[in-house]
Amino acid sequence: MRVQQKKLILSSSPRYILFIHLVINDMSQLALSTLLHVISYTLYSISVPFCLILLIITVLTTLNTPLNLAGMAVECYIAICIPLRHSLICTVKKTYILIGLIWAVSALSILPDLFILLATESLHFFHSRVFCARDYIFRSAYSQKKREASHIVCLVLVWLILFYTYFRILFAAKGATADFKKARNTIVLHGFQLLLCMLTYVRPMFEQGLLYLLPKQHLSIHFACYVIVQILPRFVSPIVYGLRDQYFRRYVRRYLLCKVSTSSHPENVTKPNITSSMRQQ
């Protein structure tokens, strides 16, 4: 019974639920976005309906990442700055509700583009083949203006949340621990990773600027932006939020590396204190 209870820690902790959702979301995003890039380099164009399905899911998972990170930042802030109320505020049910809200907010950013597309394009367009990129599908001026406005709003809101939570965490760590340098380094590392994820909101403007300067290098610019904005942050996330967590790292050693020992076995480890885990990083 005790072993079973401790195995449920990963599925009953809001922090790990959000992290697992982040990993699954990013794996889906990388798989779909890579497929789109392979298609763009091999087939160049595909049918519009098939492109729409791939593109909508890819955009949803792309927009989910910054919002998920903001939710993890709020959970970490509550755990460190309001520890006595953490178990009341951050419940499993509320965590799943938050994940649902993340998907809903992301859907509100892309579904209006689909409605505008259905209203403005002719039936012939949906039977044609196009280069599968967001600007080539949702090419209406309304869609582009709506996307820029929604990205600016999300960028401001997410940055406000991140700045407030991480500065409060930093001040709390400064007053509560002697090893302030480690806590500061952790915040800096998290901030760098979040900065990479925030590039999602400025990618369209950045890419359009490069295309204006180098109009003949469309594929090269598209690929470079994809690597920097999409791939790099999603390789950093598991390191920042997963492998640097001592408790989660023990499970990785146990189930992936097959290293079983009495001292490192996860069943011999008590449920981690999130505050102390944050400071040890």
Notable features of this structure?
mainly alpha; 2 strands; two-stranded antiparallel sheet; disordered C terminus; about 280 residues
Written description of the protein model:
- The protein is mainly α.
- Helix content is 81%, strand content 1%.
- It contains 13 helices and two strands.
- The chain has helices at 2-7, 9-12, 14-42, 48-81, 86-89, 92-120, 123-126, 134-137, 141-176, 180-213, 218-243, 246-255, 274-280; strands spanning 46-47, 129-130.
- A two-stranded antiparallel sheet has the order 1-2.
- It is elongated and about 60 Å long.
- SSE topology string: HHHEHHHHEHHHHHH
Radius of gyration: 21 Å
Query: What is the SS-derived class?
Result: mainly alpha
Uncertain stretches:
1-6, 260-281
Strand content is under 5%
Compose a concise summary of this entry:
This protein is an all-alpha fold.
Write the SSE topology.
Elements: H1 2-7, H2 9-12, H3 14-42, E1 46-47, H4 48-81, H5 86-89, H6 92-120, H7 123-126, E2 129-130, H8 134-137, H9 141-176, H10 180-213, H11 218-243, H12 246-255, H13 274-280
Antiparallel strand pairs: 1-2
Helix pairs in contact: 3-4, 3-6, 3-11, 4-6, 4-9, 4-10, 6-9, 9-10, 10-11
